[in-house]
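Appendix B. Chain record.
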Amino acid sequence: MLGSAREEGARDRALSLASVPPNRARRLVRDDPRGTAPVADCSLSPRGIRATAAGIVPGARFRRHLYRRYSMLWTAPGTG
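Structure tokens predicted for this chain:
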């Protein structure tokens, strides 16, 4: 699963700030028109996403990425 998380606290703001230079560089290199993909507001923080996922898919691995993004990977028990 891929998604975006709402900023919560100094660590999240620092990661967002760190994403500004690579984001600007990417826009100079890639012709990626803005506004072409549907986007929803981020309602949960990374902590909230982890807590919600723990109740639905226990053992999911959560990884933070730049631009307020995250990914989660879950493997069904007994399959891997």
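Further analysis of this model is presented in Appendix C.
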